[in-house]
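Render this sequence as a predicted structure.
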Amino acid sequence: MNNNTAGKKMLSIVLLIAGIIALGAAIVLDIQGSKFAFRGALLIIGAIVILIGMYEFPTIEHHRSIINFIFLFPLLFTFAITVIVPMILGIFYSFTDWNGVKMNNFVGLKNYQTMFKDPAFLWSLLLTVLFVIVNMILVNVIGFLLALLCTNKFKGVGFFRAAYFLPNLIGGIVLGYIWQFIFSNVLIKMFHLKFSPLADTRQAFIAIIVVYIWQYAGYIMLIYITGLTTIPKDVLEAASIDGANATTTLFKIKIPMIAATITICTFLTLTSAFKQFDVNMALTNGAGAMKFMGRTISNGTQMLALNIYNTAISQNNYALGQAKAVLFFIILATVSIIQVRISNSKEVEM
């Protein structure tokens, strides 16, 4: 190794160490709630110095990999700063008394113990699971039936596809207020009801399901249409020649051949239903009296995402809200992985 190479290697190592120190210092300052104004700039400078150190490292064998990583770095860095680092900090803050700005004490599992002793939170968790199961079935069934309808050749099929998909383009908050007006005004006058369906906890929960299906079924329909249109026509023609009727063709050919599409749709509906927030907030804001675990709770229609939001923002208890969010993430990740594995095994069987 000549002096030039040795010097480059030493410079590269120094830059890498300096960049790592700068990154670490910026993160520590942020955790401590420091008022140091340049901690954001320090974070970016540290990342740039690391990149320069990697680029200057005197190697031929791995130089292409280093260049590829440098080009990918802006995306990876953004993902790390907006997703990975906040997630790690969130897990850490769930074990503290963090107030949204800074932490004073490490409280261990106290936030998790408080969470599981709260009937309102447990009811929100149970309600969310029920909401997910009902909607995962209904949205996929209705979306698939709409897709079957909209893959037939008849006049105006494009209009119907657009009409069914249109509700998905309306924001959840706006959609919730529109349907709140329908339930609280239009239906009362139309059917001469004494009170709005949203005034009753059970009926309000059904109303949220109806609105969610109305919003999301059209989106799932488009994915099923894509899957159905990729089925080879010669397969369907061969089945028709062999005497297969519409029902046999549907269950023996079409459904098995779009197994991958079914996996995608069930995954999307599962994760979307678990994260339901905006419609729940706009339509009922979680209101509704309900007896649960021997206590009367006032959040009979409040699902998990809204419960976490209210805990952190409305009640100003960020540490407890973060603990609930960590549990929410674990449940969602576990259920999603299990669902995808089961669906993939079904694809192999089909």
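Summary. The mean pLDDT is 85. The first strand starts at residue 290 and ends at 292.
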